[in-house]
Amino acid sequence: MQFEPRATRNDIVGRLHNSEAFNYGVETWEAYKRGGLSKDLVEEQKKVQEADLLIFQFPLFWFNMPAILKGWMDRVLVQGFAYDLSKAYDGGLLQGKLSLFSFTTGGTKEKYAIRGDIRYLLWPMQHGIMHFCGVKVLEPHICYAPAFVSEEKRKEMLTAWTQRLKTLWKEEPIDCSPDWYFK
Amino acid sequence: MQFEPRATRNDIVGRLHNSEAFNYGVETWEAYKRGGLSKDLVEEQKKVQEADLLIFQFPLFWFNMPAILKGWMDRVLVQGFAYDLSKAYDGGLLQGKLSLFSFTTGGTKEKYAIRGDIRYLLWPMQHGIMHFCGVKVLEPHICYAPAFVSEEKRKEMLTAWTQRLKTLWKEEPIDCSPDWYFK
């Protein structure tokens, strides 16, 4: 799937709310309300709406998700759909859903531990995106440096993930407060 | 400029190093060494090479840069050019350069202060990208909620930025340690 990551005027079908000064946030909000978002966004929002659990699987690029996935967040989670004026964090519009960030890294676990903690980089994605939309967050699933470990170790990683998926529904979400990330 | 944010096989011109199992990091590293990166990447790397100071100006999207800019980081800062096996952080290959993240937010300063500190979200971009490449980081420049303040306040923001630019070269880079971000 070659998802478009760039947030542009093309995300709005038809007339703009204010064609004098283009404001992406305002325009997608207005377009959402009148059913005027582009087809790819409507399709993705339908998937989110139907899901009880959102699993984001990706290779960590620069302490973050790759641009194509960041673009999914930028374009799909529009105001009116995922949050609203006074509906954010615990009151976010996607309440009742769970999320899980599952990713592979280039570096080893030790490399991330040298300078700070891997949890530091989870703040913008887990708290700034999912928590903001009212989605609860399960413990992240991190596979460190699969490209540099043995075939046996890679198989263990897959087995561990398979095992976790079996009991995922019984897990308690994390306490998404600054303490979890930084203390 | 409609920069392509997606990291794909198209970033490598000609034959792949390993066509059996595509690894984006390895392939762009090898392509860089043999001068086989796509034209748009070569052009951007040239700009970085010639710059003493990199200013990233953007609207904050989801506690982070928009996907189009994240894609610039993902695709331009390849191994061999920006960092190398044992050349990262203070030893990164872009040593001697300065950077500055300048951005506008949707929410007010108070909104960001309710849950944690705005500095928390600077860690992946400032530390995880720039510091990793050996680039020193100046204090971020943040304009809070320009869409919701008076015309007068907006003009003040522009004046403050103009003023800061005049003496930017005299500024000391921040101490890019976990303490700066989380204490």
UniProtKB/TrEMBL annotation, chains A, B:
The keyword Calcium belongs to this UniProt entry's keyword annotation: no
Stored InterPro entries: Flavodoxin_fold, Flavoprotein-like_sf, NAD(P)H_dehydrogenase_qn
Source species, domain of life: Eukaryota
Pfam family, one: Flavodoxin_2
Leading EC class: oxidoreductase
Keyword list, A-Z: Cytoplasm, FAD, Flavoprotein, Metal-binding, Oxidoreductase, Phosphoprotein, Zinc
Needed cofactors: FAD; Zn(2+)
Compartment(s) of residence: Cytoplasm
UniProt catalytic activity: 1-(beta-D-ribofuranosyl)-1,4-dihydronicotinamide + a quinone + H(+) = beta-nicotinamide D-riboside + a quinol
EC number: 1.10.5.1
One Gene Ontology molecular-function label: metal ion binding
UniProt GO cellular component terms: cytosol
SUPFAM superfamilies: Flavoproteins (SSF52218)
Gene3D superfamilies xref list: 3.40.50.360
Domain Flavodoxin-like fold positions: 30-165
UniProt-listed PANTHER family: NAD P H OXIDOREDUCTASE-RELATED, RIBOSYLDIHYDRONICOTINAMIDE DEHYDROGENASE [QUINONE]
Function of the molecule: The enzyme apparently serves as a quinone reductase in connection with conjugation reactions of hydroquinones involved in detoxification pathways as well as in biosynthetic processes such as the vitamin K-dependent gamma-carboxylation of glutamate residues in prothrombin synthesis.
Family designation: Belongs to the NAD(P)H dehydrogenase (quinone) family.
Subunit text: Homodimer.
Name this protein carries in UniProt: Ribosyldihydronicotinamide dehydrogenase [quinone]
